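S1.2 Input.
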Amino acid sequence: MTVNGHDANMLYDHFQSEKAKNDGFTFTIEKDDADRMTHCFWADATARKSYKYFGDVVVFDTTYNINRYSMILAPILGVNHHRQTTLFGCAFLCDETSETFEWLLKEWLKAMPAGSPKMIITDQDLAMTKAISIALPNTLRRYCMWHITNKFSEKISALAYKEHYAEFKNCIWNSETPEQFEAGWVEVVNKASLSDNDWLQNLYKIRERWVLAYRALAHIRHNELDKDHKDVNERPNLKSMYPMESTMSELYTIDIFNMFQDELFQNTAYKVIATNEDDDRVVYAIHRIKGSGSRVREVVVDKLSNHVRCSCKMFECARIPCRHMLAYFSRMQIDDLPNEYILRRWTKSAKAMRVRDDLGSGMKEICDTSLLKRRNRLFQLATTLIDEAVLTEDTTEFVEELLSSGQKKLCDMKKISEAGEKSAIQVSMSCEIGLKEPFQVRAKGCGKRLKGGKEKAAKKARRCNGCGLTGQSHDKRNCPKLLSTSSQNARFNDEDEDDDGIDYADD
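S1.3 Output.
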């Protein structure tokens, strides 16, 4: 809904309404000397609680501007224990200066019920880099691989991209050690004759900041509740008699367990051979039993701490033990996965803690009405009702009528609720704080709305330098007007040559 001259005040009223519903909602709106809205930040109770559970790694992205004022949408995201995208807060920004980013990060950090994140993943924007160094000095910054790999088509020639991009990707994604990456990078750069490419040179200099990141679209909260519900009421099928499999099926969420189960199942295809030992460590080579061409992995065990690490680095990346580590545990007859390899954020109990809020007056718990509890209560009631009704045709028909009637009533209640909300919005259009609409702004770099496949395929209006027309499908090289003129000139020349009596066919 858009009401000219009132959008900013309506947004403020909406935020106030959300705060009245739940104290866990927080927001900040900034305005300039002319009372024009410049920035705003908000986070609801669910976003703030999610940060407490899953805020170790966050993604800060500003590649969207979707509102009528072209303000930059800046969501701050993370990954929950179902490997879904989860929201930690959101903002509208009028520009992408370091001062604006610094303001946002500080407001966001004040709203979160925990300290700074361990890692933040961003693009390579210099203003963002400066802001993070000030607002989050103890947070490790890494660049998003999605942004980096997407720029190859722009930064190297079309021929080099076509012939060597696959080699660049293989070097980036499949190198297991810094030495392996560096050797592979130099090899493909030289092969592609790109050693003088400035972008590649700068990218190589900051190679330690690259990161493998999850870039999921927002499934957000309904899907998270659905996954939580499945974890409570469903049990995955086991594939083996391993005690470790049974134990982890109880601890991990279903999605994480499915990944772990696949690694555990695959470990039987490997043999473990000790290749080197000294006072500090033992090195094992992990060979696939069948398939001589497969890569040999190296598992290193520290004798003092018993810490195990693998050259594939799956645990460091996904925080789930790989099949090679599990093959070693199996050989050592370790039935239960050691606690140091079980990440709490991947478990069903990841959200089983109270989240305290010290914003405003005193400490209080951030809370909202639990959709999951209500859903479970209704689900159990409905299951019992259905199980009893299916015994006879009469009771089945009775429950069908009951459910149909209830569904119709819910639709009516929803319509009344939506009408009431619209009415409340219209009534609450107060101008007491005197906010004016923001200026239209343009984001720099990739600050455009991400386009879908159909939009990308649509051709832009183009101007032909031959005929001067705009919106044509041709250009100067195949302009009908120029081709027609050339054809006429050729015909006139042929006629002149025939008048001279020269027969070129006889020459």
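S1.4 Remarks. Residues 14 and 20 are 10 Å apart (CA to CA).
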